[in-house]
Amino acid sequence: MSTDYFSTHGIKFIDYKDIEILKRFLNPHGRILARKRTGLSSGHQIDLEQAVKRARFMGLLPFVSR
Known about the structure:
Layout: H1 5-8, H2 19-23, H3 35-38, H4 42-58
C-alpha cells in the first residue's frame, strides 16, 4: 500500500503554479494518472485534478504532449 505524497511531505495546498510536483502525476502523454497509480486520497486527487486543469488553462502545462 502506497502512502499519500502530499500527506507525507506536509503539503496542505496543491498549487497550480508548482509544475514540477504536478508533472509527477502525469503520464508521458500529459494525462492525469488514476488514484490507483498515484496512491492519493480522494480529496487530494480532486485537488490535484483542479490544479492540473488550472495550470493547463493558464498555459503552464500542455493539454497533450508527445
